[in-house]
What does this fold into?
Amino acid sequence: MEMTLRLIVKRLSGLGERKAIQLICGVLSKGNEAIGIGDDCAAFEFGEEYLLVSTDIITAETHIHKKMTPWQIGWFVVAINLSDIAAKGGKPLGLVLALGLPRSISDIFLKELMEGADLCATTHGASIVGGDTKENPNVTICGTVFGTVKKNEFMGRKGAKPGDVVAVTGTLGKAGVGHYALQHGIENREITRGLFEPSPRLKEGMVLAGLKVINSCMDISDGLSSSLYQLQELNNVGFEIEKERIPLAQDLVKLASQENLDAYEYGLHFGGDYELLLTVPPSKFEEVQRSVEKTGTSLTVIGHVTKNREIHVVDGGSKKILPNGGYEHFRGSSFC
Amino acid sequence: MEMTLRLIVKRLSGLGERKAIQLICGVLSKGNEAIGIGDDCAAFEFGEEYLLVSTDIITAETHIHKKMTPWQIGWFVVAINLSDIAAKGGKPLGLVLALGLPRSISDIFLKELMEGADLCATTHGASIVGGDTKENPNVTICGTVFGTVKKNEFMGRKGAKPGDVVAVTGTLGKAGVGHYALQHGIENREITRGLFEPSPRLKEGMVLAGLKVINSCMDISDGLSSSLYQLQELNNVGFEIEKERIPLAQDLVKLASQENLDAYEYGLHFGGDYELLLTVPPSKFEEVQRSVEKTGTSLTVIGHVTKNREIHVVDGGSKKILPNGGYEHFRGSSFC
It folds into this structure.
């Protein structure tokens, strides 16, 4: 039987990324980690803390836009790694960066890339402590971050409960509007900054974790709808999202009105925002919101967790199933 | 002045890998790490221990031989990461693997790759705890390992003292003979195993560290001569290596005699062996050797550390400067 099955060779493009991750999880032995594959970070017991580890790999062909400066590439790869620590309420310790670079790359490219990476790390209380350089036909950068969180403050993806309030930090669609602008030749560094220079929500994550009332948390790097579907699967719950409560980025609202776009499509489905999505008991929400807003970042209720496993979006009077618009190609998202 | 300098754009192929690393080190801010760039691992204070972290990236174009099976690729990337922990006397906790894969890769390739990676990790007391999958035109795999070592057992690259005995674990040229066999169409899985399935010297590293007498230690992934030049630079010392004492792999000796090769060229200059190179006061060597040999691995004196900064190789009656035959192209070696 197994021999027969082995003859059915599937290509990853047909398999899709989530199935590829399931395949990987099926192979791996469980080790001494407390939390492994399936959350933003892996976590190990380390005295009273967890040691958090996460890794992200990006490449010029599929993840580095041609308009990104080397400085922005460096900033970006560090920011997306730090975001995984933020989502667990962790404090970053440091990062290692592995650089796969073509021989034709200039030393100025390398210098600027490292300056962007260094500034993003130091701005967020971390540092780049090592790495690797190797030749690669395509610019490919792999960052790995590690940090710590007190065990009783760790915010996992698992834990969402029916009745919980669903909230997001900041605004959505910052990356989406940047992407739209680039596609349509709108040159505006302010608009593309949301896409190329995301801010990991570390301060906010640490504040949230310290309150010890968050039931579940993840970053929405894959987009809001994709993230909700991931929480649904892990927690065996559903969601009711109120479309008009989704906090949209101002640049998005402005451009959408000029270009006659549905801004909510970007807010709901476009990845790359690196905000935090969390669920919390309604009785605790006010305290949570007050604490987060002291960091200068908004926290907005966008719906609630339901027992029914479907994910609905309420738009005025109508209620529809929310499509899963995230990157379910063999293109993105992490298995850690 | 700076503007003028900035116009002299150097390509990395001209710059070379060590200069690229110097450039990177010049850019990075020092953070809270105890030991950063320049050793096999970065190290952070973690109570009475150091947290060790290291990363390695490999790609199909330059580092994955066409004859490697997916299983061997998985084993290899984990083994070379674990070797960095071994060189510091550390105990591995776990690894994360980031996979950049073309869409055309089959699910069987992915499954076998993960099986090789998983077995290498579990064989050495570690586990793969997470990772990332992304599309990449070329198979590119980045592994990051983390582990711990007691602070007073950490074996750094710095510390070699004139008069120290220089020794290596195991035998050299295992990777070299595998490479020669492949280049010359000699199909022999036993011979290529040394190249494709290296064994990280974790047990040996932990035994060495526990003795607390090792003055300096590193792995010789870049080749013996290259490693000696790295220790020379860091420690401001020299070496006298006795060519005939270099423990050569049996397969190498046999093939060299059949093919009329100079086996010592492979033992001295070829990378990929992942043995440990160490220096220790002569009065302690016997104890060290006895302890390492209890693990089933030999430890062989190949020379001593000199005050004179040159590196000589003694061959019978003659003494010559040892050429630095390692990979000083923009191709290899890590900056961590």
